[in-house]
């Protein structure tokens, strides 16, 4: 494996308080970074809905729907009176029904009290219906799962057969991971109505895999395999391929079978080793598989957020999904602790930060349109730039087509037959960075210029 500590240049100072769009080099690729919103407190899970919305759970008990264009936040469910939040517990994972919004169901995990004499409480999985405005009609699917201040999971992921996976932590009671009668320290699998699938590894049991400490990352790969990340103690954060009925070894095995205390359990052949591990730990969090040929540094890689590591890890896997063959570290300590990651409709990346003001950061890379690598030339100029509500375009000939794109590649203004020096009204455009594309049929040339407003 080749580990590269990538240090990249920054075109502007970028910090957790990023507001305006700023450019930054990642390898040879220019990306644009801004803040979608700072109006969240300890975001835990993010999911993109269609073309326009990002849903977020906040650990204190809010489920919010954020408009990707305006950053406006609308609370669709307030569970602050029900959620018990202490340490790392609270409102945690959520996901949409695979047919959402056709089947307008949303699945949530949260912890609730009261605490018993030892400080333990409970965790539940609940299904809600989205009516277009709010989440309503709660239906408890799983209840009375042990919860504690730490090690509660919980990520949710639908499999292609429409069964739901849910990770649970072992609540720092290590032996529960190996207790088949307990739902703690496991991946559970259930039907959307809360029933147990008939083909689960153990008939009549929700348990899909066991031997987990605290898994907080999951994604599907193009080959159909399910990849999960797992928090280790002070050593051996893990990357695992999830397979039904497997036992991942905690607490008998930490990471690979490479320590003397692991010899006896490893010799049984009963336990599954990870495909990768990190020592010292970096506090692995959520995962996505990213595909964008215009962004070669991250294309066809697994992207993972980290908490203690305060970085994004981009990993290339081998063809058999048995090892990480290349690993590159990005955004180190730039935005603090990174809890979650989501991919937007135009291949933009959203990062939920877990420190400072808890902003949600947006990274806009090039798309196949090549918007961030404009061709420039003295023949075309924009005045003024930065712009107010109007601009004038200087071109050698009448422009057959002038198009303004936003950073996601969407057309926000277009006109044919524009004359050189003709005034262009752009008062409807918000502040930010755009790209102006000018097509000159007579010369066969296409010019692109960045426009700041």
Topology:
Elements: E1 2-5, E2 22-26, E3 29-37, E4 43-49, E5 53-58, E6 62-67, E7 73-78, E8 91-96, E9 105-112, E10 121-130, E11 135-147, E12 156-158, E13 164-167, E14 186-190, E15 207-210, E16 215-220, E17 226-230, E18 237-242, H1 263-267, E19 276-278, E20 284-290, E21 301-306, E22 312-317, E23 324-330, E24 338-343, E25 349-353, E26 360-364, E27 381-383, E28 390-394, E29 399-405, E30 411-418, E31 423-425, E32 433-440, E33 445-452
Parallel strand pairs: 1-23
Antiparallel strand pairs: 2-3, 3-26, 4-5, 5-6, 6-7, 8-9, 9-10, 10-11, 12-13, 13-14, 14-15, 16-17, 17-18, 18-19, 20-21, 21-22, 22-23, 24-25, 25-26, 27-28, 28-31, 29-30, 29-32, 32-33
Structure description:
This protein has 2 domains: 2-364, TolB, C-terminal domain (Neuraminidase, 6 Propeller), CATH 2.120.10; 381-452, Immunoglobulin-like, CATH 2.60.40.1930. The protein is 1% helix and 44% strand. It has 1 helix and 33 strands. A 5-stranded mixed beta sheet has the order 1-23-22-21-20, with no helix packed on it. A 5-stranded antiparallel beta sheet has the order 2-3-26-25-24, with no helix packed on it. It is elongated. The protein starts with a strand and ends with a strand.
Short description:
1% of the residues lie in helices and 44% in strands. By secondary structure, the chain is mainly beta. The N terminus is likely disordered.
């Amino acid at each position: 494996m080749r580990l590269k500590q990538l240090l990249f240049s920054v075109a502007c100072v970028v910090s957790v308080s990023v507001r305006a769009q700023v450019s930054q080099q990642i390898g040879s690729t220019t990306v644009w970074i801004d803040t979608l919103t700072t109006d969240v407190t300890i975001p835990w899970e993010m999911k993109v809905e269609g073309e326009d919305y990002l849903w977020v759970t906040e650990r204190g008990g809010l489920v919010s729907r954020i408009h990707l264009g305006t950053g406006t936040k609308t609370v669709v469910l307030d569970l602050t009176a029900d959620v018990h939040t202490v340490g790392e517990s609270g409102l945690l994972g959520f996901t949409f029904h695979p047919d959402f919004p056709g089947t307008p169901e949303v699945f949530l995990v949260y912890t609730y009290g009261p605490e018993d004499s030892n400080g333990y409480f409970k965790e539940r999985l609940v299904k809600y219906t989205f009516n277009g405005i709010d989440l309503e009609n709660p239906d408890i699917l799983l209840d009375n799962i042990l919860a504690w201040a730490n090690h509660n999971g919980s990520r949710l992921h639908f499999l292609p057969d429409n069964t739901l996976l849910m990770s649970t932590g072992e609540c720092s009671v290590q032996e529960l991971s190996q207790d088949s009668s307990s739902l703690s320290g496991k991946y559970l699998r259930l039907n959307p109505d809360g029933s147990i699938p008939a083909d689960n590894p153990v008939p009549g049991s929700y348990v899909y895999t066991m031997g987990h400490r605290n898994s907080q990352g999951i994604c599907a790969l193009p080959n159909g395999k399910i990849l999960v990340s797992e928090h280790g103690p002070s050593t051996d954060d893990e990357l695992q391929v999830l397979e039904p009925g497997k036992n991942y070894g905690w607490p008998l095995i930490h990471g690979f079978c490479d320590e003397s205390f692991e010899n006896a359990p490893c010799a049984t052949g009963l336990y599954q080793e990870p495909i990768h591990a990190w020592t010292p730990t970096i506090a692995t969090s959520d995962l996505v598989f990213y595909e964008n040929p215009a962004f070669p540094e991250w294309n066809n890689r697994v992207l993972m957020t980290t908490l203690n590591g305060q970085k994004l890890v981009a990993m290339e896997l081998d063809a058999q999904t048995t090892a990480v063959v290349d690993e590159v570290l990005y955004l180190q300590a730039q935005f603090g602790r990174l809890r979650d990651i989501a991919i937007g409709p135009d291949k933009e990346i959203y990062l939920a930060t877990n420190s400072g003001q808890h902003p949600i950061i947006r990274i806009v890379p090039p798309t196949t349109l090549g918007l961030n690598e404009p061709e420039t030339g003295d023949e075309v100029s924009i005045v003024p730039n930065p712009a107010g509500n109007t601009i004038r375009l200087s071109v050698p000939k009448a422009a057959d087509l002038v198009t303004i794109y936003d950073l996601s590649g969407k057309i926000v203004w277009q006109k044919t037959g524009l004359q050189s020096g003709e005034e262009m009204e752009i008062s409807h455009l918000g502040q930010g960075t755009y790209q102006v594309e000018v097509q000159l049929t007579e010369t066969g040339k296409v010019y692109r210029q960045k426009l700041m407003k």
